From TrEMBL:
Family to which the UniProt record says this protein belongs: Belongs to the helicase family. UvrD subfamily.
Record has Chloroplast as a keyword: no
Keyword terms, alphabetized: ATP-binding, Helicase, Hydrolase, Isomerase, Nucleotide-binding
PROSITE patterns given in the database record: UVRD_HELICASE_ATP_BIND (PS51198), UVRD_HELICASE_CTER (PS51217)
GO CC entries: cytosol
Catalytic activity field: ATP + H2O = ADP + phosphate + H(+); Couples ATP hydrolysis with the unwinding of duplex DNA by translocating in the 3'-5' direction
Protein name: DNA 3'-5' helicase
Source organism phylogeny: Bacteria, Thermotogati, Thermotogota, Thermotogae, Petrotogales
Length: 659
C-alpha cells in the first residue's frame, strides 16, 4: 500500500493533501485546530466518526505515537471500527493505541492497580444480573431483621441498584439519588443505605466489582494517588472522547485526570442527543466543559445522512436547551416529504404499519433498511403480534444480552467458580442445577468448601474433602474443572456441556435446540482466548452488538424494532416512529418528573435516524385518551411533538377514521 499520510522519518509535518478532499471545511478545522481542551459539537449525521478518525490520523502525521493516544467510545464496536479506519487511512500500525469504552479503560487500569484499593488484581466483574442476585441476597438478609410491615416498604433489588448506580455515576449522595430517581422512597432511604452497605461488604468478600465500582474505583485511584495518576497521564499525550453528551460526572472526572499531564482533551458529541440521564449521564457535562477557561469550540453541521426534507424538519425539532446549531443538508432531494400519520387506535396503527412495510417491500426496499422506533417496549406489543401474523421477520435490538440469558449464565457460573472459588453467586447457580440440591444443601456445601479452603492449599483438595456421596456427578465435574483450570476456556466449556449441561438442557427446556446453538457459539468465542481470566473479563465487558446469539435463521433479512435508546448512532432508509402521542412519546411519567427536555432529545434522536423516508405515526386514542382499559391519565395538557413541525414541511395522512 502506498504511504498515504506522511513521512515520519523525513519529519514532514504537513497536512496531508487528501484530508481536504475527505473532509468539509468545518470538519477540517476541527481536525487540525482542536487541541488543549476542545469541544466538537457534531450534529446528527455530520460525520463524527470521520472527524475522530482523521483527528487520530492527523496526530499520527504530526509524529505522535499511537501508544500516546487514548480514545474512549460508547461501544467497543465503534472503537474497533475507528481504529481500523485510522489504519486504512494512515497505513500505520495502530495496535498500541488504547481504545475502548470507559469500562474497558477502567478495567485495564484496575487490573494493574486494584491492590492499592484493597482488591486482588484478579477481581471478578459482576454483570448486571450478578449484581441483581447479590443485591437480592443483601436485601433479603436485611429484611430478616424487620417487621412484616416494615419489610413491605423495601423496594426490589432492581430499584435499589438503579438508585445506587445513579448515585455512583453522578457522585451524588444516596439521599440526593433517592430524591432524583425515586422520591417516593425517601422514607426508607435509611434502609436502602444499610442494604447498600451490606451489598458492598458481600462484594468485597468475593473480591468482585460491579460496573459502577469499576468507574468509581478508577476515579478514587486517580484522585488519591498522585504518582499513579501522573504515571498513567504522562503516557496519554492526547485523550479523545466520543459521544461525550452521554458521559456521567465520574466519567468526565476520569478523562480529566487521564489528560492532566499533557492537557489535551478533545471531546466530540451532540448535546441535542443526550438521552441517558436515567443512568447518570449528565447533559450538563457539555455546558460545564464549555464554560472552562480557554476551551476551543468547533461545530460541524453538514448532515450527510438525510434528504433535505428531513434535515429541514430536524432543524425545527432541535431541543430547547441546546447549543445553537443549524443543520445543512448535503444530499439532494427525492421530493418526498416526511409524513405525519393519524390512526384511530393501537390496532389500526399496527395495521397501517404492516401495510406500509409490505408496500416498501414491493417497492424493492430491503427489510434491513426499515426500522420501527418507539419510546418504550410496551408500545410495540400489538405491532409485534400483527407482524407475527403476517409472517414479517423482525429483530428486536433491545432484548436481553446474550451473556445474560439463562443457559449462558449457567455455563459461565461453572467457569467463574474455577476462576474465583469464593464467588458465592456462581456457586449457588451451579449447585442448584443438580437434582436434589436446594437452598439448605447448597449452603451446607459452600460453607464446608470455604472452611476447607482455609485448611487445604488448593480448591481441588478443599472440594475433594467434602462429603458428596449423594452427588457423585457434581463431585466429578467440579474436581475435573479444578484439576484442569489452566486448560483453555473452550475445552472447559466443551467439557461442562458434554458431561452435564447438554442433558440438563434436554430435560429442562423446550427450546433446547437453539440454546445448544448458543452454547456452541460461546465455545467458539472462547476459542479466541488462551486463559480463563481473560475470557471472563472480556465477556463481562462485551456488548450485545458484538455477540449475537446463534439464531437458526440468521440469514433471513429482518426489519428492526427498537426503542429510541437502542437506535442511538444507527440509521435506516425508512424510519417509522410509532405512538407519538402525548403521554406515550413524550412519556407521561417523564413529564411528571419534569423531564420534557430529555423527551425532546429522544424525539430528535428518533427523527434523525432516517435517511430517505420518515413516518411519524400517532393515534387518536393514545395513552391520555384511554382505550382498552389503559388507565394512566394526567390532568395537565401534555405537549404534542408534532405541533412543533410547520405544516408545509409534512404530508398529513389520516387512516381509518373521520374526525
Ligand atoms: N465530508 C464528508 N463527505 C461525505 N460524506 C461524509 C462526510 N463526513 C461524513 N460523511 C458520511 O456521513 C454519514 C454519517 O456519518 P456518521 O455516521 O459518522 O454520523 P454521526 O455524526 O455519528 O451521526 P449521529 O450522531 O447522528 O449518529 C456517514 O455515512 C459518513 O460516511
Amino acid at each position: 500500500m502506498e504511504e498515504k499520510v506522511f513521512n515520519i522519518k523525513r519529519n514532514e509535518y504537513t497536512i496531508p493533501e487528501f484530508f481536504k478532499e475527505e473532509l468539509d471545511d468545518e470538519q477540517l478545522k476541527a481536525v487540525i485546530n482542536s487541541k488543549g481542551r476542545s469541544l466538537i459539537i457534531a450534529g446528527p449525521g455530520s460525520g463524527k466518526t470521520r472527524v475522530i478518525t482523521y483527528k487520530i490520523a492527523y496526530l499520527l502525521s504530526q509524529g505522535i505515537r499511537p501508544e500516546n493516544i487514548l480514545l474512549v467510545t460508547f461501544t467497543r464496536a465503534s472503537a474497533k471500527e475507528m481504529i481500523e479506519r485510522v489504519k486504512n487511512v494512515t497505513n500505520v500500525d495502530t495496535s498500541s493505541l488504547t481504545a475502548g469504552t470507559f469500562h474497558h479503560i477502567c478495567n485495564m487500569i484496575l487490573r494493574r492497580y486494584a491492590k492499592v484499593l484493597g482488591y486482588d488484581n484478579n477481581f471478578s466483574i459482576l454483570d448486571s444480573e450478578d449484581s441483581k442476585d447479590l443485591m437480592r441476597i443483601a436485601k433479603n438478609e436485611y429484611k430478616g431483621n424487620l417487621t412484616k410491615e416494615e419489610a413491605k416498604q423495601i423496594p426490589n433489588e432492581g430499584v435499589i441498584l438503579k438508585i445506587v448506580g445513579y448515585a455512583a455515576n453522578t457522585l451524588k449522595s444516596l439521599r440526593e439519588a433517592v430524591l432524583d430517581v425515586a422520591p417516593y422512597l425517601i422514607d426508607v432511604e435509611d434502609d436502602i443505605e444499610k442494604i447498600y452497605m451490606h451489598y458492598i461488604d458481600l462484594k468485597q468478600k468475593i473480591n468482585a466489582m460491579d460496573y459502577d465500582d469499576m468507574l468509581v474505583n478508577t476515579l478514587r485511584l486517580l484522585e488519591t494517588n498522585d504518582d499513579i495518576r501522573n504515571h498513567i497521564a504522562s503516557k496519554y499525550k492526547w485523550v479523545l472522547v466520543d459521544e461525550f453528551q452521554d458521559t456521567s460526572l465520574v466519567q468526565l472526572r476520569i478523562v480529566e485526570f487521564l489528560s492532566s499531564v499533557h492537557k489535551n482533551l478533545i471531546v466530540v458529541g451532540d448535546d441535542s442527543q443526550s438521552i441517558y440521564s436515567f443512568r447518570g449521564s449528565r447533559f450538563e457535562n457539555v455546558e460545564d466543559f464549555q464554560n472552562h477557561e480557554n476551551v476551543k469550540l468547533f461545530k460541524i453541521q453538514t448532515n450527510y445522512r438525510s434528504v433535505p426534507e428531513i434535515v429541514e424538519l430536524e432543524n425545527y425539532l432541535i431541543p430547547t436547551h441546546s447549543i445553537p446549531k443549524k443543520l445543512k443538508p448535503f444530499r439532494s432531494s427525492f421530493n418526498i416529504k416526511p409524513k405525519i400519520v393519524k390512526t384511530y387506535d393501537e390496532l389500526e396503527q399496527a395495521d397501517f404499519v404492516v401495510q406500509l412495510i409490505e408496500n416498501k417491500f414491493n417497492e424493492g426496499i430491503s427489510p434491513e433498511d426499515i426500522a420501527i422506533l418507539y419510546r418504550s417496549h410496551s408500545l410495540s406489543m400489538t405491532l409485534q403480534q400483527k407482524l407475527d401474523a403476517r409472517k414479517i421477520s423482525y429483530k428486536l435490538l433491545s432484548g436481553k444480552r446474550f451473556i445474560e440469558t439463562r443457559h449462558i449464565k449457567d455455563i459461565m457460573a461453572f467457569l467463574k467458580i474455577v476462576a474465583n472459588p469464593f464467588d458465592n453467586i456462581s456457586w449457588s447457580r451451579v449447585l442448584k442445577l443438580f437434582p436434589g440440591i436446594g437452598q439448605k444443601t447448597m449452603t451446607k456445601i459452600t460453607k464446608e468448601f470455604y472452611t476447607n479452603l482455609m485448611e487445604y492449599t488448593t480448591p481441588y483438595d478443599a472440594f475433594e474433602n467434602i462429603n458428596l456421596k449423594k452427588y457423585p456427578k457434581l463431585k466429578d465435574i467440579i474436581l475435573y474443572l479444578y484439576e484442569n483450570e489452566t486448560e483453555n476456556p473452550q475445552d472447559l466449556i466443551d467439557y461442562i456441556y458434554l458431561e452435564f449441561y447438554k442433558e440438563y438442557l434436554e430435560l429442562n427446556f423446550k427450546d433446547a435446540y437453539s440454546r445448544k446453538l448458543d452454547i456452541e457459539r460461546l465455545s467458539e468465542i472462547a476459542s479466541r482466548y488462551e486463559t480463563l481470566d481473560k475470557f471472563l473479563e472480556e465477556l463481562a465487558l462485551s456488548e450485545n452488538i458484538e455477540i449475537q446469539g446463534a439464531e437458526k435463521d440468521r440469514k433471513v433479512e429482518k426489519i428492526t424494532l427498537t426503542t429510541v435508546h437502542g437506535a442511538k448512532g444507527l440509521e435506516w432508509k425508512v424510519v417509522i416512529i410509532i405512538s407519538v402521542n402525548p403521554g406515550d412519546f413524550p412519556n407521561g411519567m417523564a413529564l411528571k418528573d419534569k423531564k420534557l427536555d430529555e423527551e425532546e432529545r429522544l424525539f430528535y434522536v428518533a427523527v434523525t435516524r432516517a435517511k430517505d423516508e420518515l413516518y411519524i405515526v400517532k393515534q387518536l386514542t393514545g395513552t391520555t385518551k384511554p382505550y382498552y382499559g389503559n388507565s394512566f391519565y394526567i390532568k395537565q395538557k401534555l405537549p404534542d411533538f408534532t405541533d412543533k413541525i410547520p405544516k408545509r414541511l409534512v404530508e398529513y395522512w389520516k387512516i381509518g377514521y373521520t374526525e
